[in-house]
C-alpha cells in the first residue's frame, strides 16, 4: 500500500467518483418511476418533460463521474503497479548474494512480473468495484424500501439464501481449481520436457510411454474441470431461480399493494429494476471476494521481498581508493547459513601482482573463497583484507570496482558487444575495448563486419560457450582492476587458447593480482603460487615444483591429467 | 525454466474454414448434443422474453382491470402466477441443462485436443523442432488451448443464446410497436459506433501495453537472472535507471489502455439511460396520440424489452473478440496437427531369436538375448535373418539440414562390431550431425548408411533407435524418480537391471547417498544434481538399453577431475564390446580409438589411428602437439 505514493490521490478520489456515479445510476430508476406514475398515467406532458430533462441531466452527471472515475482508477492502479515494480526492482538491486540465494532468481522474477500483475488487477477491481458494488447494493435496497415499502422484506429472505449458496459453491469449487492449477503445471511441464528433450525421447523410443503419461494428466484435468464446472453450472440457474422467485413474490404482493393504493405501478417497475441491481451486485461482491483471496497469495509474496533487508552494509562513507592488489585472509571461515562451514580457518597472504592458481574438487570451497574478496559474501568469522584494509572498511562500490570477478555462471546481456563491454567501465574507449578483446582471445568479434556493434542476444545465446567465456573475460579486463579473479572461466576454451589468454593477461595487466580457479592443472601450472583447497581448508600452498615435490594430491592430479609427462 | 512470453494475438487467416473444422472437432459427430443445446437455449431465451413481458401482463391484464373493477378476487392472478412459475421453472431447467451439456462437450473436446496435439508432437520429425522455437510450440499448448477453452466453455453458448435472444426480443418489440423499435435500433447504432471507436482505441493501446509489458518483463528476467553479474560490475544504478524508463512507458500505455476499457461501462450504461428517457418520452407521446390505445403497460413492457435487447448486443460485441482470438489459436493448432509425421516406412524389424535343438536360430516371441534383423525381401524371395552385430558403414554420405546447404560432404567410413571411432574437429565441423544420421533423426541427401549390411532406410525407425544408444552432451532428465529416469533406456527393465546398469555406469554410489536412493524424485530437469551426476545417469540409461551401437557426445566442461575420472571409467565399462562413435572434445580420450576422423567444414580431412595421424603431421598433429606443448 505504501507504493501508492503520488498516485494516492487518484486511488482515493476514485471511490468518491464511483459513489457519485452510483448515486446517479440509482436515482434514475426512481425518476423513471415518477415519470410513469405522475406523468404518463396522468397525461401530464409538462411533468414528463421536466422529469426527462432531469433524467438526462443525471445521466450526463453519471457519465461524467463514470468517465472521470475510469480515468482515476486506471491512473491509480497502474501507478501503483509501477511503483510496486520499481520498489521491488530497487530492492532486488540492493540485495546481497546471500539474499538472492535465499529467494532464487526464478522466484524473484515471478514475484516482480506475475505477482505484480495479479495485485494490480485486483487493485483496479478493488478501487472500482469494491466500493461500487456494496454501495449500489445498499442504495438499491434503500430505494426499494422507499419505493416499495414493505416489499423489501422479500429481499431479507432472498439475499441470505443466495449469499449462502454462492459462498458454499465458491468454497467447494475453490479447492478443485487450485488442484487443477497444479495439474496444469504438471501438464505444461510434461510438454516442456518433451519439447526440449525430444531427442532423448526419440532416441530411446519413448514416444508411446510419454503419450500415455500425458494422457493420464490430461484425463485428470478433464475430470477435475468437469467436477468444478458442474458445480459452477449450478450457479446461473440458481441465481435465475432466486430472481424469478423474487419477481413472482413482488408481482403478488405488489399487486396487493397497488390495489390497496399503497403503491404506484411505476414504483413497482422501479422495484423490479432495483431487484435486478441488487442481485447483480451480490454476484459482484462474491466475485470480488474470490479474486481478492486469489491475489492475496501474490501480495504476500511481494511483501516478503519488500520486507527483506539487504544483508550487506554498503558503507557509503568508507574508503574510496584501493591502494594495491594485496589480499590476505586471517582465520577466515564461512558458512552459507547451514550447520557446516564451507570454509574453515583460511589463512594466507598474497602480494600485489602475484598470480595465484586455486585447485580443488567440486565443493571444496573455491568459488566461495574468491567471492569473499569482492565482498560478494560476508566472511562469517575472521578478516578478509584487500590492499591492507579490511574489505568492510571500503565503500562497497569502490571495492568491487577494483575487484573484477569473472563468475563461473557468467552472463552477457542483450545489446551490442560494445554495450556489454561498457559494463566494465562506462567511459571506456573503443581502443581499450579492442585491446581487451585481443587479450582475451575474443578477437573473433572483428571477423564480423559489424565489429563492436554486433548484436548480443539475451544471455549471449548467439555465441558459443567458449566465445561467451572469452567475452566475459574481456569485460572484466576493460575495468583495469587491481585484482582479477577467474572462476573456472576458460572451461569451454581449448587448451591452446587458454594458454594464450594467460600469456596475454600478464602483458595487459602486469600489476594486477590474479586468481585463477581451474579444473585443469595446465591452467594454473605457471602461476606464482598454487593454493590447494580440500573440504574448505587450505591443504597446501606453494609453487608448482614445491607442490610436485611435497603434495601427494597435487602429484596425483598432475599424473592423471598430464600423463606424468612433466616429470619425464 | 524461462517464463513464456505471451505471443501477440494474430488474426486467423481463414476464419471460416477454421471455424468449421473447430466446430466439427468440438462436437465430434455428436450433433444430437448440439441439437439439445440449441433447443434448451431456445427455450430459455423464450422464457427470458416472457419474463420481460411479465410486468406488462401483470399491470395490463390484472392490476389495471382489478383496480378498475375494485375487485379483490385475487384467484385469477394467483392462477396466472402459478402458470408463470411453471414457465420460469422450465426456463431454469433448460438453462441448467444447457450448462451441463456444454461442460461435458467442452471438457471432452479440450481433452481430445490436448491429447491429439501431444500425440502429434511425439510423432513429428526432429527437423520440426529445429524450425520452431520451443516457446512457440509451448504456447500452442498453453495460450492457444486456453483461448479455445474460453471460447467453447463460455463464448459459444453465449453467442448462440445472445443471438437467439436478440431475434426473439426483436420480434417481440416489433409486435409491441414499430416506431418504438425504430428508436431502439437507432440508439443501438449509436452505441455500437461509440463502442467501436472506444474499443479500437482500447485494443490499440492494449497491443502497445502487451509490447511494453513484454519489454519490462524481458528486462526484469535478464537483469534479475544475471543479478550476480550486475553486482560484480556495480551496475545497479544504471540498471535501475534503465528499468525506470521502461517502467514509466509501461505505466503510461497501461493507464491509457485500461482507461479506455473502463470508460466503456459508464458510456454504454448512460446511453442505455438516455435511450430509456427517449423511449418514455416517445411512449407517452404515442399514448396521447393514440388516445390510450398504446397502453401504459405496453410502454412498461417495451422498456423492459429494450433492456433485453441492448444486453445481448453488448455481450456479442465482447464475445466476438474472444471468438476471433480463439480462431487464430485454433488455426495455429490445426497447422501443428496438419504437419507431416516423421515417416517410418521401414520394414526390417528387430526380432528375438531362439537357438533350436539343431543349433539353428528361429524367430520367437520370448525375450532372449539373441537379436536379429528380420528382412522380408521385396522381390518375394524368402525372409532373411541377419544377426544383430553393430556393423556400421557410411558410404558417400551427403547431408544438409537445408537440402541446398550441405553440412556433410561425401562421408565414408566403416566401423566393425566392437570398434571405437572418434570424431575430432572444431565446433560446426559436423561431428554431432554425423551421429544424428545414424539413428535417422535426419535423412541423408545422398549416399548410404548400412547397419549390419542393411540400408538403415529399410529398418523400422523404432527398432533402429533401440539398437543405437545415444549419450547426448546435455543430459535431459524428466520429472520422476531416478529409477524411472534410468528406465528411460528400456521400458521393461527390472529394478535389478537398473541397479546393475547404475553400478556399471558408476552412478550407484551417489544414488545411494541420497535419502530415497533410487526413488529420489528429480524435478526441473534434475535440479540439484551436478553435471557429472547427470552424465552418470545418462550413461546408466544407455547401459540399461544395452545397444550394440553407442554414440557418445562427450561433455567435458564443468566437471571436476575427480568426477571426470568416475564418468570416464563408467563410459569405458559401457563401451566394452560395443561399436562406439565418440565425439571427442579432449584428445586424450581418443588416443585408443581404432580410427580417428578429423572433420573440417563437413569433410573428413584426415583419418587413421593415433599413431598414423601423428605420423601424418597434419591437423590432428597440430591439435595434439598444441596440447602437448601445454602439458
What's the overall geometry of chain B? elongated
- Count of folded domains of chain B: 3
In percent terms, what proportion of residues of chain A is strand? 5-15%
**CATH homologous superfamily annotation of the largest domain in chain A:** ABC transporter type 1, transmembrane domain
What structural class is derived from the secondary structure elements of chain B? Answer: alpha/beta
Helix share, percent of chain B: 55-70%
Quaternary status: heterodimer
Largest sheet of chain A: 6 strands, mixed
- Kindly state the percentage of residues in helix of chain A: 55-70%
CATH class of the largest domain in chain A: Mainly Alpha
Total number of beta strands of chain A = 12
Largest sheet of chain B: 6 strands, mixed
Uncertain regions of chain A: pLDDT < 50 for 5+ in a row? 564-568
Structural class of chain A: alpha/beta
CATH topology of the largest domain in chain B: ABC transporter transmembrane region fold
Average pLDDT of chain B, to the nearest integer?
Answer: 78
Pair with the biggest interface = A-B, 155 and 144 residues
Strand share of the residues of chain B? Answer: 5-15%
Quick description:
The complex is a heterodimer of chains A (568) and B (631). Chain A has 17 helices and 12 strands.
Protein architecture, described:
The complex is a heterodimer of chains A (568) and B (631). Chain A has 568 residues and is an alpha/beta fold. In chain A, 64% of the residues lie in helices and 10% in strands. Chain A has helices at 8-40, 45-94, 97-103, 105-148, 152-196, 198-203, 207-259, 265-307, 366-373, 396-402, 417-421, 430-439, 465-478, 495-508, 521-524, 544-550, 552-562, and strands at 327-334, 343-350, 355-359, 381-386, 389-390, 403-406, 415-416, 455-456, 483-487, 513-517, 529-534, 537-542. In chain A, the strands form 3 sheets. Chain A has a 6-stranded mixed beta sheet, with helices on both faces. In chain A, a hairpin with an 8-residue loop joins strand 1 and strand 2 (343-350). In chain A, helix 2 (45-94) runs antiparallel to helix 4 (105-148) and helix 12 (430-439) packs across helix 14. Chain A is elongated. The N and C termini of chain A lie far apart (73 Å). With 631 residues, chain B is of the alpha/beta class. Chain B has helices spanning 15-27, 31-69, 75-123, 126-131, 134-176, 178-225, 227-232, 236-289, 296-337, 431-438, 461-467, 482-487, 495-505, 508-513, 531-545, 561-575, 610-616, 619-630; strands spanning 349-355, 361-364, 371-375, 384-387, 392-399, 408-415, 420-424, 446-451, 454-455, 468-471, 480-481, 521-522, 549-553, 579-583, 595-600, 603-608. Chain B has a 6-stranded mixed beta sheet, sandwiched between helices. Chain B has a 4-stranded antiparallel beta sheet with strand order 2-1-3-4, with no helix packed on it. In chain B, strands 6-5-8-9 form a 4-stranded antiparallel beta sheet, with helices on one face. At the A-B interface, helix 1, helix 2, helix 4, helix 5 and helix 6 of A face helix 2, helix 3, helix 5, helix 6 and helix 7 of B.
Amino acid at each position: 500500500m505504501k507504493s501508492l505514493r503520488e498516485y494516492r490521490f487518484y486511488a482515493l478520489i476514485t471511490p468518491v467518483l464511483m459513489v457519485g456515479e452510483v448515486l446517479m445510476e440509482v436515482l434514475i430508476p426512481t425518476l423513471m418511476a415518477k415519470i410513469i406514475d405522475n406523468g404518463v398515467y396522468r397525461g401530464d406532458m409538462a411533468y414528463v418533460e421536466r422529469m426527462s430533462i432531469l433524467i438526462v441531466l443525471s445521466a450526463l452527471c453519471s457519465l461524467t463521474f463514470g468517465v472521470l472515475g475510469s480515468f482515476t482508477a486506471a491512473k491509480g492502479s497502474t501507478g501503483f503497479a509501477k511503483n510496486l515494480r520499481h520498489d521491488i526492482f530497487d530492492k532486488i538491486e540492493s540485495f546481497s548474494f546471500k539474499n538472492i540465494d535465499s529467494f532464487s532468481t526464478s522466484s524473484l522474477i515471478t514475484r516482480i512480473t506475475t505477482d505484480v500483475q495479479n495485485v494490480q488487477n485486483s487493485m483496479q477491481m478493488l478501487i472500482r468495484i469494491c466500493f461500487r458494488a456494496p454501495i449500489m447494493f445498499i442504495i438499491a435496497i434503500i430505494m426499494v424500501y422507499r419505493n416499495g415499502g414493505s416489499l423489501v422484506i422479500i429481499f431479507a429472505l432472498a439475499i441470505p439464501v443466495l449469499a449462502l449458496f454462492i459462498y458454499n459453491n465458491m468454497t467447494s469449487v475453490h479447492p478443485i481449481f487450485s488442484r487443477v492449477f497444479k495439474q496444469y503445471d504438471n501438464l505444461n511441464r510434461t510438454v516442456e520436457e518433451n519439447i526440449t528433450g525430444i531427442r532423448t525421447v526419440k532416441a530411446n523410443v519413448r514416444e508411446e510411454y510419454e503419450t500415455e503419461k500425458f494422457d493420464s494428466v490430461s484425463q485428470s484435468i478433464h475430470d477435475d474441470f468437469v467436477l468444478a464446472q458442474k458445480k459452477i453450472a449450478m450457479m446461473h440457474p440458481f441465481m435465475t431461480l432466486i430472481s424469478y422467485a423474487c419477481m413472482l413474490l413482488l408481482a403478488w404482493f405488489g399487486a396487493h399493494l397497488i390495489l390497496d393504493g399503497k403503491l404506484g405501478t411505476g414504483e413497482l417497475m422501479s422495484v423490479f429494476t432495483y431487484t435486478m441491481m441488487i442481485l447483480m451486485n451480490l454476484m459482484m461482491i462474491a466475485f470480488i471476494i474470490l479474486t481478492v483471496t486469489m491475489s492475496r497469495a501474490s501480495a504476500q509474496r511481494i511483501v516478503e521481498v519488500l520486507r527483506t533487508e539487504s544483508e550487506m552494509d554498503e558503507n557509503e562513507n568508507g574508503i574510496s581508493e584501493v591502494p594495491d592488489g594485496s589480499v590476505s585472509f586471517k582465520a577466515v571461515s564461512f558458512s552459507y547459513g547451514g550447520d557446516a562451514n564451507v570454509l574453515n580457518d583460511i589463512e594466507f597472504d598474497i602480494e600485489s601482482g602475484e598470480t595465484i592458481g586455486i585447485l580443488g574438487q567440486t565443493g571444496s570451497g573455491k568459488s566461495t573463497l574468491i567471492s569473499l574478496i569482492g565482498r560478494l559474501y560476508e566472511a562469517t568469522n575472521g578478516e578478509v583484507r584487500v590492499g591492507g584494509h579490511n574489505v568492510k572498511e571500503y565503500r562497497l562500490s569502490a571495492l568491487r570496482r577494483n575487484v573484477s570477478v569473472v563468475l563461473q555462471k557468467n552472463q552477457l546481456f542483450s545489446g551490442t558487444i560494445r554495450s556489454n563491454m561498457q559494463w566494465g567501465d562506462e567511459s571506456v574507449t573503443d581502443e581499450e575495448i579492442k585491446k581487451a578483446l585481443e587479450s582475451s582471445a575474443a578477437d573473433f568479434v572483428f571477423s564480423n563486419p559489424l565489429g563492436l556493434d554486433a548484436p548480443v542476444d539475451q544471455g549471449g545465446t548467439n555465441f558459443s560457450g567458449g566465445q561467451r567465456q572469452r567475452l566475459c573475460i574481456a569485460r572484466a579486463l576493460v575495468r583495469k582492476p587491481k585484482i582479477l579473479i577467474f572462476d573456472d572461466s576458460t572451461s569451454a576454451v581449448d587448451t591452446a587458447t587458454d594458454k594464450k589468454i594467460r600469456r596475454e593477461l600478464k602483458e595487459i595487466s602486469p600489476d594486477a593480482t590474479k586468481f585463477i580457479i581451474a579444473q585443469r592443472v595446465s591452467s594454473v601450472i605457471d602461476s606464482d603460487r598454487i593454493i590447494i583447497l580440500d573440504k574448505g581448508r587450505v591443504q597446501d600452498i606453494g609453487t608448482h615444483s614445491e607442490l610436485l615435490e611435497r603434495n601427494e594430491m597435487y602429484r596425483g592430479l598432475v599424473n592423471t591429467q598430464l600423463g606424468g609427462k612433466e616429470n619425464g | 525454466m524461462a517464463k513464456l512470453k505471451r505471443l501477440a494475438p494474430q488474426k486467423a487467416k481463414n476464419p471460416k474454414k477454421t471455424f468449421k473444422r473447430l466446430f466439427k472437432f468440438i462436437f465430434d459427430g455428436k450433433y444430437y448434443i448440439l441439437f439439445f443445446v440449441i433447443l434448451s437455449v431456445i427455450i430459455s431465451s423464450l422464457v427470458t422474453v416472457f419474463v420481460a413481458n411479465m410486468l406488462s401482463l401483470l399491470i395490463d391484464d390484472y392490476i389495471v382491470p382489478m383496480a378498475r373493477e375494485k375487485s379483490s378476487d385475487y384467484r385469477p392472478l394467483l392462477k396466472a402466477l402459478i402458470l408463470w412459475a411453471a414457465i420460469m421453472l422450465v426456463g431454469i431447467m433448460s438453462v441448467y441443462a444447457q450448462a451441463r451439456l456444454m461442460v461435458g462437450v467442452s471438457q471432452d473436446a479440450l481433452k481430445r485436443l490436448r491429447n491429439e496435439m501431444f500425440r502429434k508432437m511425439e510423432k513429428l520429425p526432429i527437423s520440426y523442432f529445429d524450425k520452431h522455437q520451443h516457446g512457440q510450440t509451448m504456447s500452442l499448448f498453453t495460450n492457444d488451448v486456453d483461448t479455445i477453452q474460453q471460447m467453447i466453455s463460455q463464448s459459444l453458448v453465449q453467442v448462440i443464446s445472445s443471438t437467439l435472444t436478440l431475434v426473439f426480443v426483436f420480434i417481440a418489440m416489433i409486435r409491441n410497436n414499430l416506431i418504438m423499435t425504430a428508436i431502439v435500433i437507432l440508439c443501438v447504432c449509436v452505441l455500437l459506433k461509440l463502442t467501436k471507436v472506444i474499443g479500437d482505441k482500447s485494443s490499440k493501446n492494449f497491443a502497445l501495453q502487451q509490447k511494453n509489458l513484454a519489454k519490462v518483463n524481458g528486462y526484469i528476467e535478464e537483469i534479475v537472472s544475471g543479478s550476480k553479474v550486475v553486482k560484480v560490475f556495480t551496475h545497479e544504478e544504471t540498471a535501475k535507471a534503465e528499468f525506470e524508463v521502461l517502467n514509466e512507458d509501461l505505466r503510461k500505455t497501461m493507464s491509457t489502455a485500461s482507461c479506455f476499457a473502463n470508460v466503456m461501462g459508464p458510456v454504454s450504461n448512460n446511453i442505455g439511460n438516455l435511450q430509456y428517457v427517449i423511449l418514455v418520452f416517445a411512449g407517452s407521446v404515442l399514448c396521447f396520440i393514440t388516445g390510450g390505445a398504446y397502453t401504459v403497460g405496453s410502454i412498461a413492457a417495451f422498456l423492459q424489452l429494450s433492456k433485453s435487447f441492448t444486453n445481448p448486443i453488448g455481450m456479442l460485441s465482447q464475445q466476438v473478440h474472444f471468438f476471433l482470438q480463439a480462431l487464430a489459436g485454433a488455426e495455429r493448432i490445426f497447422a501443428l496437427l496438419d504437419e507431416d509425421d516423421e515417416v517410418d516406412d521401414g520394414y526390417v524389424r528387430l526380432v528375438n531369436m531362439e537357438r533350436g535343438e539343431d543349433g539353428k536360430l528361429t524367430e520367437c516371441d520370448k525375450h532372449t538375448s539373441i537379436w536379429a534383423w528380420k528382412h522380408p525381401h521385396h522381390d518375394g524371395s524368402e525372409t532373411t535373418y541377419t544377426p544383430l552385430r553393430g556393423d556400421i558403414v557410411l558410404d558417400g554420405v551427403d547431408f544438409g539440414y537445408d537440402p541446398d546447404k550441405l553440412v556433410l560432404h561425401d562421408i565414408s567410413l566403416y566401423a566393425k562390431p566392437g570398434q571405437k571411432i572418434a570424431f575430432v574437429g572444431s565446433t560446426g565441423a559436423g561431428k554431432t550431425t554425423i551421429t544424428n544420421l545414424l539413428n535417422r533423426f535426419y535423412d541423408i541427401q545422398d549416399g548410404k548408411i548400412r547397419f549390419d549390411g542393411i540400408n538403415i532406410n529399410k529398418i523400422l525407425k523404432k527398432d533402429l533407435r533401440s539398437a543405437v544408444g545415444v549419450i547426448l552432451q546435455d543430459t535431459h532428465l524428466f520429472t520422476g524418480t531416478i529409477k524411472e529416469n534410468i528406465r528411460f533406456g528400456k521400458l521393461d527393465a527390472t529394478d535389478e537391471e537398473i541397479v546393475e546398469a547404475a553400478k556399471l555406469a558408476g552412478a550407484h554410489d551417489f544414488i545411494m547417498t541420497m535419502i530415497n536412493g533410487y526413488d529420489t524424485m528429480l524435478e526441473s530437469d534434475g535440479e540439484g544434481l551436478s553435471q557429472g551426476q547427470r552424465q552418470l545417469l545418462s550413461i546408466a540409461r544407455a547401459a540399461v538399453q544395452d545397444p550394440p551401437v553407442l554414440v557418445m557426445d562427450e561433455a567435458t566442461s564443468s566437471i571436476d577431475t575427480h568426477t571426470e575420472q568416475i564418468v570416464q571409467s563408467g563410459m569405458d565399462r559401457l563401451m566394452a564390446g560395443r561399436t562406439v562413435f565418440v565425439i571427442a572434445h579432449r584428445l586424450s580420450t581418443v588416443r585408443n580409438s581404432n580410427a580417428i576422423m578429423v572433420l573440417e567444414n563437413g569433410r573428413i580431412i584426415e583419418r587413421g589411428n593415433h599413431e598414423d595421424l601423428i605420423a601424418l603431421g597434419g591437423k590432428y598433429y597440430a591439435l595434439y602437439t598444441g596440447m602437448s606443448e601445454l602439458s
